[in-house]
């Protein structure tokens, strides 16, 4: 069985974001990078399936500049067999359709039985790429999965809906699944596996070789939102903060009465 | 400019997001028509053409079939913009349409600014104004971003569609959310733990503050996913919706899905090490502090 998991490297969301000089994305200096949270569930599910099947080969794919290889190594340490790095220094300017096209173009002739993606990325958050890859490849896709089962060519899953109810869905492979938070418990790579991952194949393919399409959309402006909530911001010594908070609770609420 | 609005049914009923779609179209201006897989007993309050496919035939969750039906309507109406809610239905269906139409998709629109669509990035720390260069654009709307102040009134002119194809996904019905062991909606005070608590051993810090304030404790989703708290403690779109007198968000960044569950709280205190955390937008007070230091002191002072 051939498996593919697509991941993205994103900045830590606790960073302070500044706009870049071209005014179309965030400035990358001083950011700490990590694996997109949703993709951790995708990698874990793919590795679990590989363990279940035994005879399976799992490729991890990531698009971006050289630095994304660090995040790919984490996926390799979690249990992916090989890495396909689609080298693109300007991947942040690509729209979701272009990203999906690169992935589809890579996957087209490789006969993957199952492709795993995260539901969305934490930075761009479009929730488009996975479904688009499946549409471009002409295979079914199940999105927003919080439960996954594969048996004999059939994927059974549960999609999470608003309010916490779930929709039970299934399709046959080849297929793509997009993974929601909580699908499983992503493992932490162990030290021996981190060492082993260093020896795994990690090939770089220039994005241009995969014929990316022209952009369908442009960012015309990016900026922090205008502050609307005129909430009070308190800083300083914890003991003083505690006193200030209690004072506010007395003045503004009835909960201490 | 012509817009096609795609309303959503769940469990045999029209969802309230239909009103948000109608309000969005009114703000944008131009003509609007609507599409719905549903039935005639529960229709949107929309003055205009409504293309209706029968839900018993077309299926409630059948994205491939719904896509085919929509493509027929789009062929006939030639809209420049197709709009869906950014919901589990919308974000699943929209990219299928966008690929078929070779249309750009703009996800989770929060605002229309000078005719352009604005979307969030990086957990709402940034906002991006986007322009599509394709003839047709597909857009999804963030839940709550276009809620009208008054529900629209109106009666659609129904045009029935012949049921579509079955698609390549089977839908086997719903599984209800587990019954809530704790009903947070009744609590007057809720102190919620976010991922910022760092480890499950720190949960008592939150519980103790909740006790000192005679309230319940809640949690954000990662805390529940990591099994540090039970699912019934989760606040947000996929958890409980609460409106206590006091909500204390501890180590919670303020993702839209969390805010949707607590923004109606009367008074909100956020405790966060990140001064820029989006929770600051809805908080009456943001105390910039490490919760592990501040909460025990606060609890002690409240108890004495
Ligand atoms: C379809 C869908 C549905 C979802 N439904 C829900 C839902 O119902 N409820 C929900 O909560 N989420 C939901 N989410 C997830 C949501 O998008 C966020 O991922 C989640 O709310 C983040 O939780 P958090 O704020 O606890 O964690 P994070 O975003 O990781 O934030 C942690 C915060 O803690 C702060 N912090 C760190 N250390 C400390 C410290 N020592 N002291 C003080 N502060 C500290 C950080 O600055 C940061 O702001 C959903 C997502 C999707 C896609």
Radius of gyration of chain B, in Å, reads 22 Å
Radius of gyration of chain A in whole Å, from Cα?
21 Å
What composes the largest sheet of chain B? 7 strands, parallel
- Percentage of residues in helical conformation of chain B: 25-40%
Oligomer: heterodimer
Major interchain interface with per-chain residue totals: A-B, 80 and 96 residues
Compressed to H and E, one letter per element, the order of chain B equals EEEHEEHHEHEEEEEEEEHEHEHEEH
Task: Enumerate how many helices of chain A there are, as a single number.
Answer: 6
Structural class of chain A: alpha/beta
Strand order of the largest sheet of chain B: 7-11-6-1-4-5-12
Helical segment tally of chain B?
Answer: 8
Folded structure, characterized:
- The complex is a heterodimer of chains A (257) and B (304).
- The model of chain A has no long low-confidence stretch (mean pLDDT 96).
- Chain A is built from 6 helices and 13 strands.
- The termini of chain A are far apart.
- Chain A has 257 residues and is α/β, with parallel strands linked by helices.
- Chain B folds into 2 domains: 2-161, Rossmann fold (3-Layer(aba) Sandwich), CATH 3.40.50; 184-303, TPP-binding domain (Rossmann fold, 3-Layer(aba) Sandwich).
- Chain B has helices spanning 17-28, 55-58, 63-77, 90-101, 203-212, 221-225, 256-262, 291-303, and strands at residues 2-6, 9-10, 13-14, 31-38, 49-54, 81-85, 104-109, 111-113, 116-121, 126-132, 137-141, 157-161, 170-175, 189-193, 216-219, 246-250, 267-272, 285-288.
- Chain B is elongated.
- The N and C termini of chain B lie far apart (64 Å).
- Classes of the chains: A alpha/beta (257), B alpha/beta (304).
- Chains A and B meet through helix 3, helix 4, strand 7, strand 8 and strand 9 of A and helix 4, strand 7, strand 9, strand 10 and strand 13 of B.
- Strand 12 of chain A pairs antiparallel with strand 10 of chain B.
- Flavin-adenine dinucleotide sits between chains B (194-196, 220-222, 234-239, 251-253, 255, 257-258, 261, 271-274, 277, 290-292) and A (13-14, 119, 181).
